[in-house]
What we know:
The complex is a heterotrimer. Chain A is an alpha+beta fold. Chain A folds into 2 domains: 3-210, Aldehyde Oxidoreductase, domain 4 (2-Layer Sandwich); 308-339 and 440-715, 2-Layer Sandwich (Aldehyde Oxidoreductase, domain 4), CATH 3.30.365.10. Chain A is built from 19 helices and 29 strands. Chain A is globular. Chain A starts with a helix and ends with a helix. Chain B is an alpha+beta fold. Chain B folds into 2 domains: 2-71, Beta-grasp domain (Ubiquitin-like (UB roll)), CATH 3.10.20; 79-151, DNA polymerase, domain 1 (Orthogonal Bundle). Chain B has 5 helices and 5 strands; from the N terminus they run E-E-H-E-E-E-H-H-H-H. Chain B has a 5-stranded mixed sheet, with helices on both faces. By secondary structure, chain C is mainly alpha-helical. Chain C has one domain. Chain C has 8 helices and 6 strands. Chain C has helices at residues 2-7, 25-34, 55-70, 73-76, 153-161, 171-180, 182-185, 201-213, and strands at 86-87, 92-93, 106-107, 110-111, 121-122, 132-133. A two-stranded antiparallel ribbon of chain C has the order 1-2. In chain C, strands 3-4 form a two-stranded antiparallel sheet. A two-stranded antiparallel ribbon of chain C has the order 5-6. Chains in contact: A-B, A-C, B-C. At the A-B interface, helix 5, helix 7 and helix 17 of A face helix 1, helix 2, helix 3, helix 4 and helix 5 of B.
Amino acid sequence: MTLQDLNTSRRGFIAGSGLVIGVAIAPKFLSAAPTGVRAGGDSALLPMNTFVRVGTDDTVTVLSKHIEFGQGPFTGLATLVAEELDADWSQMRAVHSPTENKIYANLAFGLQGTGGSSSIANSYEQMRKAGAAARAMLVAAAANEWKVPASEITVEKGRIKHAASGKESGFGAFAEKAAKQMPGEPKLKDPKDFKLIGTELPKLDTRGKINGTAIFTLDITPDNLLIAVVAHPEHFGATVKSFDDAEAHKVQGVVDVKQVPSGVAVYADNTFAALKGRDALSIEWDLSKAETRSSEELAAEYVRHFREPGIEATNKGNVDDAFKATGVQSIEAEIVFPFLAHAPMEPLDAVFIKSGDGSVDIYNGAQFPAMDQQVAAKILGMDEKQVRVNTQLAGGSFGRKAQFGSPYMQEAANVYKASGGSRPLKHMWTREDDIRGGFYRPMYAHRMRGAINADGQITAWEQSIVGQSIMGKADLDSTSVEGASNLPYAIPNLKVTSHNVKLVIPPLWWRSVGHTHTGFAVETFVDELFQKIGKDPVEGRLALLKDEPRHAGVLKKAAEMSNWGSKLPEGRMRGVAVVESFNTYVGQVVEVSVGPEGTPQVHKVWCAVDCGVAINPNVIKAQMEGGIGYGLGAVLFDAVTLGKGGRIIQSNFHDYRSIRINEMPDVAVEIIKSSEKPTGVGEPGVPPVGPAVANAWRRLTGAPVRQLPIVNIVSA
Amino acid sequence: MVSFTLNGQQKEFDGDPDTPLLWVIRDAEKLTGTKYGCGVAQCGACTVHLDGMPRRSCVTPISMVDGSEVITVEGVSGKEADAVKTAWAGLDVPQCGYCQSGQVMSAVALLQMVPKPTDADIDGAMAGNICRCATYHRIRAAIHNAANSMEG
Amino acid sequence: MKLKLAFTGLAAICLFVGAGMALSPASIAQNAQGGTKPDGKTLKPAASFQSITNQQQRSVALFQEAGKVIQHPRCVNCHPATDRPLQGATMHPHQPPVFRGDGGMGMPGMQCTTCHSPQNTPVVGQADTIKSIPGNPAWHLAPIEMAWVGKSLGQICQQIKDPARNGGKSMDQIVEHMAHDELVGWGWDPGAGREPVPGTQAEFGELIKAWVDTGAACPAS
């Protein structure tokens, strides 16, 4: 049985409170495709519904509608199911669900996909219901078998028990019978009765990632596999004018060379031959529609937009009057943010395998699998049902794999199509393709103006933001201004405007989207204003966050964790920032000194997070730690820059530096106790660290950070 | 023809002698725990042990491996390997996991040479292994835990 | 910046092109155009310094010529003043970060040999700025007492003569080292994508020998 059989054998769905947990009666489920953690053991797996399968060996396998690329949905979703199922954690497994847009839709955005730190938030009730329904089915099956009332049956740690008769069983024995039960509307636990939610459960996908057995897309190696790489231009918007592949064909192992819409594809029997063949190509590029301006020239154009009115995002009170008031001091700052590549460890890749019936299986780290499926089917000229997207563990993404219109899949499918499809094909990007591949966090320029009145109060805030619209909008793109237009600080007069810039360089969300730049701009500028009026950065913020208890809560907690205000070692300085993103609140205090390269050395980060109910503190802490490292690396080291004539300068980790272990601070994380609905943690750890470091740096060296990455200003 | 052992098994390769060991391991031998991340010895995802020493297989032509012993994450064993794997699991170090084979191979090599590494030793041995998920905080702790576990 | 240094102190006419050094079209053009300007690829032969009659001045001039090699990034990068080597023509800190370790061979777990081979290794199909990984059987960092980064040519000269800072070498051994050491010789064969040091190792050896023979005088700065 393969994943596709699962789709065709589903008999129907039930909907409970709008949360679909379809019922399936496939006799057994075993994935032929290596997808994530191994599903159950070798025994039959019986479907309780579209999300939960119980094995005759007592295992419980959760079908994760969200891709696992490190942010922890396998563990998180399994925790939700296990809680309501009263399963034992050791029996839980997780695999990726098949691609089925309706059943496995992300309830936050209506299509199957992962993003916006929404995996837990949108699955919280749905997965609990899936678990509760499965529990009810197991209990009903046991009640029938034991001939006792279901109400007298209890379930605890994966054991079904009837106290009065002394009968007891695991789940496996009832799996087959339970699968035939029709569950009613499942009843969910009162959160106070949670046993697993809120505990530090070990992650389900850890083992295979330690011993090399975890399978990623790049690791799928069917027999007779063709490897394909594409030669891409060094300028955005360039196209192939002509090419000479004579030398490429001479490379032993090169099978074919074809022009594809995005460049020239080289097909080979092995990866090295493909790379060598690509190197041997001689291509003339047509730059007539290409971006030929440098980053510096672009920045100069961006700041010109500050003089224009822009699109109004927020206009509260009267900013102009506030600045004109007597005795008001005006403070200004302009900050330029570079393009950022996501640079996940596994560069983009996909494997195509044709079946005997002509249908095609695609294996890839699909963040929007249904969209990948639509796009591939269209390019291959096939019915969508004949194209199956099998989501694989992905070596990171940070937003890179979530793309409307699936442009990566367009290239991969075109390459497969051009190959003729007679052999299985793996299309892969090298690191250079990745760094130079566009879909960056766009470049942005911010101009900020703050008004301080004679009493030392911040009375007005004006912010103008210039950059590409990630959503491709002509009018206001909320992702350009989020975090600024809803400034949490109680400043009576607030005006935020946005200026959309159009470029051929494709933009994309990058871990925490708009907050990557708005968080930095807002939190560094407010800190400068506090310094100007002689207020402590924590006290100053708290005074303006009286109506924002969750902001204030994490800020106070981070300050308390760091023992804010205590005496610091010589040469050290602290900085603070608090940012809400994706309805999760994060406050961070950092301690910084001047490092050996003259750049900030961050010694310690204290992080407090409020993400509502904490499903798995272990995963939440991991995401904060990782988010801090990811955000810190970017502000310290990273920029994709266009040189003179628009050529992309960086190409690999030697010039697009990733943070490394010697640059990683010690991190302490505390989670605020909360009964609010759970919110995401994949992204919210990122935004505060940059401004917190810049704030410490400014107070340490006197130099405000007006341009990123910091390494460039320091070495300039 | 190049002859070498891979996780103790005798192997031969008669393709392009410039082929990096990484692609021989992955393409020819279909052992996929060893990862491609950069191809230029910047990220460490391809780390293997070559004659007992850590080595970036992406910049190791197979011709150089003739007569050598190659150990990958699938074959690494011994008390250091056991201690590292146990410590890694204990702290749930991996996130996406793609770099972790390389991290594990570097950490095992470090502990084989320095049974009780300091933070500076860890920086020295591990700074060549990039983790874009930035699991460094736990990697450091796990190496210390592994070292402590070997003491007893 | 360091490359510029290699051009200074050399106003004399460059008539001699290093034996065995093929001139690239670019360097020919430069010579034809500039006429008297050095191209950064050649060394004046030791014999051409005979015209300087004052022996001390001749000695200094010989060392200054040898300095085109000594102060080249190919050489200085592995004579760092810290525990971290430099890299590339821009002489930036080595990426990935590597540290000196015992004998300048790197740290346990990431020694030089983790990435560097006994020979230069071409990189195929990757970064256009990394054409090869440099390699040599003796690849390692110079000891800290031989640090050259941040020093003037005169200071380096004094250092080379000082047994406490040259590995206990006699002047004869210095000549031998410069003329025949295999790792020194790597500078003339640094692998694809890297500019070699000027001249040949034999010419460089002759300059050093002539410098020693003329009293091993050092430039004032």
